Protein: Beta-hydroxyacyl-[acyl carrier protein] dehydratase FabZ
Amino acid sequence: MKSLNIKEIQEIIPHRHPFLLLDAIEDYEPGEYAVGYKCVTYRE
Structure:
């Protein structure tokens, strides 16, 4: 299972806060799928 943290995600895509809507990717297959998550606070 492959995973990416926030630093690795930022190296791949140009989006930054507040438009970076990912905190981590838990599993992915390039060109096929990705499973990720975003932690949301009550203010979001």
Q: What stands out?
A: Residues 11 and 28 are 16 Å apart (CA to CA). The radius of gyration is 11 Å. Residues 6-37 form one domain. The longest helix spans residues 6-12.
